[in-house]
């Protein structure tokens, strides 16, 4: 009964998301688009953190290279958006494969620090390689053309682009969910709980961690690819360590032990940031206080705490 109610709530949420541009003020179309993109970014991170037990502080590198791939293809080649996003996924996966190959042999804080170091290296390259990335000014001035597959869409319309992002995020999330529910995903969870026992079963722990890291990088690149047309710019700040901290906060805020936790955390984080900045210039102080209180009193995240209470309730 409770499972049916939760499934119904999920379906209702999707319906409301589809109807969002017609029922909210125009400004919230942009907020909704940002929530969806950052939610996918956080979900990609949670595959590594929540399911595999690896804390990455360099995930913005994959997000950022996705933004640059899409921006450069749109600016120089005028490719359809769908093709640009596929390239963004490929670039994110390739970069994650390289960084992961050098990082997954380490554990815990050493892995986290190494990913942070590689992430800042990628940020520095984007910041200093002006002939390619245009340095701190970033890449702008590109226009959105066709979507691809012969589908005629006016991507310059924020409501249309919101629905495109929503459709892509739903498909990507379903793929991520199937990965997490597969035997591969179950092995990742076993590695998180006790890697030594999994190793005793004859499984190559490093190979599974590298595969998870690469898949995560691909979906982070996809999220970055959608962010470039949304912001109409690709800049080095998207690769900065502070951007890597956002999916960490979103995942913890929503609940790392639950697949939809990062999406809930993304919505809370973006909405809190939007509302607080509209009231005070010291928004970082108040946002930090609110987030700290939520983490302290909702140890399993907002969604995790609610679901634990709901499922345990008689």
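Sequence proposed for the structure above (314 residues):
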């Amino acid at each position: 009964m409770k499972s049916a109610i939760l499934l119904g709530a999920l379906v209702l949420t999707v319906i409301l998301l589809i109807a969002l541009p017609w029922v909210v003020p125009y400004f919230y179309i942009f907020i909704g688009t940002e929530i969806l993109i950052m939610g996918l970014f956080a979900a990609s991170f949670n595959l590594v953190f929540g399911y595999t037990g690896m804390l990455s502080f360099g995930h913005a590198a994959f997000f950022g290279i996705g933004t640059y791939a899409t921006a450069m293809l749109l600016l120089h080649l005028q490719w359809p958006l769908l093709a640009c996003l596929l390239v963004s996924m490929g670039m994110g996966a390739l970069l994650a494969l390289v960084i992961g190959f050098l990082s997954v042999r380490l554990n815990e804080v050493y892995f986290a620090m190494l990913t942070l170091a590689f992430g800042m290296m990628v940020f520095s390259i984007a910041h200093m390689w002006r002939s390619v990335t245009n340095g701190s000014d970033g890449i702008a001035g590109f226009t959105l053309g066709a979507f691809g597959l012969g589908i005629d869409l006016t991507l310059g319309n924020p409501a249309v682009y919101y629905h495109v992002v929503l459709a892509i995020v739903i498909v990507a999330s379903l793929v991520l969910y199937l990965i997490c529910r597969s035997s591969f995903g179950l092995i990742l969870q076993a590695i998180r709980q006790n890697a030594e026992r999994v190793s005793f079963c004859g499984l190559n722990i490093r190979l599974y961690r590298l595969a998870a890291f690469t898949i995560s990088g691909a979906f982070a690149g996809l999220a970055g690819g959608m962010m470039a047309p949304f912001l109409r710019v690709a800049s080095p700040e998207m690769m900065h360590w502070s951007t890597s901290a956002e999916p960490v906060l979103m995942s913890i805020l929503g609940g790392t032990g639950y697949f939809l936790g990062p999406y809930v955390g993304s919505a809370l984080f973006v909405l809190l940031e939007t509302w607080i900045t509209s009231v005070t210039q010291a928004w970082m102080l108040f946002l930090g206080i609110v987030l700290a209180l939520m983490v302290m009193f909702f140890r399993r995240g907002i969604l995790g705490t609610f679901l634990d209470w709901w499922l345990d309730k008689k």
